Fold:
Amino acid sequence: MNVFVYVLTHNILPIMLVASFGYLLHRRLSLQIGTLSSVVFNILSPCLVFASLANSQLPAKELVRLVAFSAINILVMGVLAFLLARLLHLQRAEKASMLIVAMFVNGGNYGLTLLQLRYGEDGLSRGVVYYVTSTVMVYTVGVIIASMGNVSWRATLQRMVRLPAVYAAVLAVIVYGFGISIPGPIMSGITIAGNGAIPVMLLVLGMQIASIRPDDRGRYVWPAVGLRLLGGPVVGIAVALFLGLQGAARSAMIIEATMPSAVINLILAGEFGLPTTNVARIVVLSTLISPLTIAAMIALLGL
Structure:
């Protein structure tokens, strides 16, 4: 069996299967996403972040390079999206939409699951670094872009300090840096909760896709999808080469950079008055096409 087919069937198909359960739950039983999302956002995801980082065996230098990769990759994608938006002569709101869908990917429920299936704990622990960095940037840089400069730095900071995953990451770095020993029963409980994050995240992904109702066509939809799915891996490869990433770190970061556009972009668009229907189309199309582009990229690069 060639690598492309293997990745599709063994690494990506299980993700789509669990996500389809969430899709059916929402369409058939009309279950609400809000409660489940809150559980993931406030409890399961922070536990996953803490357990992965606190137990990490990553050298400190590699941790710094992974954070650098995440930030540089996101910012470079933003620059490319800005140039593409200028080339297409997009209006201000359309330009903001282009930037956020290109910059912020589904590195949580999709990316972390794929890394865990393909590389085990080595991939997951590194993917969590991208996920945390991206989450912080969504609620800082992403908010500023989506608001088109209409949100103050104070308001942005207030949003960021309400992120449980940020506190989990800070605590985990303290534990990691000072070699603090967490009592076994407490660490086991946090780890168990963190292990529940990924399957619930996938259910939420399916439910979110089922709730999206794109009903409009925008001339920048397909260019944005192409930039996200084709430009993402190219930028990821270049940044990994620039930072000298090797092995599992290189593979995990490039795969995170190849993920489709995140559903959080639709939330940002709705909150700040951007064209939500076009953002929804980009999120759905990039998610549906991504199994093919991700599998092809893994096969071509031998990740």
